[in-house]
What does this fold into?
Amino acid sequence: MSNTLTISSAHEKLRSKKISAVELVQSCIDRIESVDKDINAVVYKNFDAALQQAKKCDEEGVFDHPLTGIPYLTKDVFCEEGVPTTACSNMLRDKDYTPPFHSTTTKRLTDLGAISLGKANTDEFTMGASTETSCYGVTKNPWNLECVAGGSSGGPAAAVAADECLFALGTDTGGSIRQPASFCNCTGLRTTYGRTSRYGVMSMASSLDTIGPLAKNTEDLAIILEAIAGKDPKDGTSGNTPVPKYTDALTGNLKGMTIGLPKEYFIEGIEKDVEEGIRASVKVLEELGATIKEISLPHTQYAASTYYILCPSEVSSNMARYDGIRFGHTTEGINNLNDYYTAVRSEGFGAEVKRRILIGTYALSAGYFDAYYRKAQKVRTLITKDFEDAFASVDAIISPVGPNVSFKIGAHEGDPLAMYLEDVFTIPQVMAGIPALSVPCGFDSNNMPIGLQIMGPQWGEEVVLKVGDAYEKATQWNEKKPNL
It folds into this structure.
């Protein structure tokens, strides 16, 4: 089935006319119709438009770009013109919100001929680590339907792992691309803050959110990133740094590279199989020519606490627009404005969104701003300095993506702190604004995937892609498929 192809292999078949774009898109549609009733990765199907676009690609017959005719899914926070976008929240679902414009990322992909199949599931407004807060219900892990796919990009990760699309777009604020990629045995990239445009993507925390791809291997990530990265006049936070040809960095040769192994990421409580998987990965990297150096990132222990002050603070600001007047759910029969706001937000938002709004509003209030928010910003600077110091002596840094593999659905119900700690290894990079990649690196004793995290310096995506590509080619863990 052509839905199992990578982007690069599908591109070659399209160019040589061995398959058509319509056949490729139809293959993904058939796969979604066959298995998604069990996984719940896709929340909106844009199949008719996708087939029309595929037919147009075939009629034109020009497949010069690797993404022309390639079907993908977008996390349900990316605006696409004429396609319902709800952030998997009743706040927007109840209003049937349909954007009249494209996000910069989906516009760039559309202009190249990539074909959107629809929207993938996410935690409500991307707040969560398991896709359990979605108003459409939880996305299940293709490797074990009793377990979560991760979050908040659980829908995109599960869809890629289940071959429902050739790639997907996600967002990563506290680990929301890397953790689900690790849980589902696909490859996912958090980009440097500012490398990709956030225009047209619904914000959770504006100084932390990044846009990135999930795919079947690192080579495909490089292809996608070349297409979506770069300065955007519509996004003042996007960087003006030149975009390299990332595929040129995929040499498979790590000789002369020094890779750091931070001692702070091997903490008490990390699962034995996860630690063993990372230790085995170290040996593979050494065999590929890299030198492994133990390093210290001393402020790592404060990263999660810092994040869960800063992130909710920005959430409380960004969610203010959903008041039932400018955007969002509305209600009837209330004449008092304060009561109207209360009713709209109580009915429209789920528990996790409300929790973060309350925490953030508290942290930003006049009596607590200095004690919480300002102090957290100072710690963020120290965490950034840790990485800057480390990259003075190493080219890249590796660690586990998380302390454990995917957990059972409902395992953290009623315990938000336990859920927050799922991001303990993916938050420090967010504080520093650096790129980080998750690649498959093995399975635990219950056949659940384990992810290796590869971090690079600011604007150093080519470094993490180079290491990830070499590792994948040497191991092929990413080629293993769930039995659906």
Observations:
- Residues 143 and 482 are 5 Å apart (CA to CA).
- DSSP finds 16 helices and 13 strands in the chain.
- The chain has one domain: 2-260+391-479.
- The first helix runs from residue 7 to 15.
